[in-house]
Specification:
CATH class of the largest domain: Alpha Beta
Shape: globular
Largest sheet: 9 strands, mixed
Helix content: 25-40%
CATH topology of the largest domain: Aminopeptidase
CATH superfamily of the largest domain: Gcn5-related N-acetyltransferase (GNAT)
Structural class: alpha+beta
Amino acid sequence: MSCHLKAITREEHLRFVTSRPSVSHLQTPSWGDVKPDWRAESLGWFDEGGDLVGAGLVLLRPLPRLKRYLAYLPEGPVIDWGTADLERWLEPMLAYLKKRGVFSVRMGPPVVARRWSAEAVKAAIADPGARRLGDVEATVHEPGAADIAERLRRAGWRQTAPGGEDGFAAGQPRYVCQVPLAGRSLEQLQNGFNQQWRRNIKKSEKAGVKVVRGDQEDLPAFYELYVETAERDRFVPRPLTYFQRMWTALTAEDPDRMRLYLAHHDGEVLAGATMLTVGEHVWYSYGASTSRRREVQPNNALQWRMMCDAHELGAAVYDFRGITDTLDEDDHLLGLLRFKVGAGGEAVEYLGEWDYPLNKLLHKALGLYLARR
């Protein structure tokens, strides 16, 4: 099958997204509005009959003083990754972007490579000889993933080094934690929690913690907790305007695309989180909490309420997003891994992000610049 690629309207793109059971929130048309430093464009793949069979949100960032661009498709594009003729999808994309002045393309195939059950992750953390999750035998090796990676390499794509969450250089998390919801009752879901999680939920209920849905006017209250969390966990916080822009853009596309949850206790907001939904996939996006009154366990109460609401929405998966792949006890992120896996989540490894240099000289210069930053 040969594919024809061209720019499509936001409406065409959104119709395609809503026709699929699961598409990353980073591949919705509205996500381009969240990133004003990038120029967003919707691309569509059409089959010989003229039907839209694939789509991608591409973000273009211009180089200063040059009419050349970085192109980024976070957790995309949404195409048939399992096909034997993958190049028929990717070659038209590269040709189109090259004509647009793009010198380097980065994409994140939404392809799962391996999975580790909660029990396997727990055993790996307890094993003094285990250093990284990727070195531990996986519970499931997804068929076809290794073949897709090899075909990308043969076509000239290069896998990027794992990074953080912010910016083109860092990219999206390769390892995430997901709680399966499909076919499970709330009772079965809670039975999958470890003892600490079940105990903490009971503590929060007994203490009178109330979790409520917030609105746009509650974002400043969430942000105050978020800044405190950033100081405690040693990361650079995004500005309040980022969350306000995110709310405006995503809810304009779908009123239920983004939700805000706040955990209250004795008139004080102790924790907050944002939740994103696309089709049957729900993400815990950003979380924040204060160090005060941690004994009433607001974070467990918050997550349990969000999981219950995701279940009510008919979600197939509740996605905790990024986790560390290190098993080092001295790493402060290991506690976050324990927290997420404690909710019965499985560790999931994606194929990661891949680069294609359309102009090798500019691509190499960019790499040297980013390495010095």
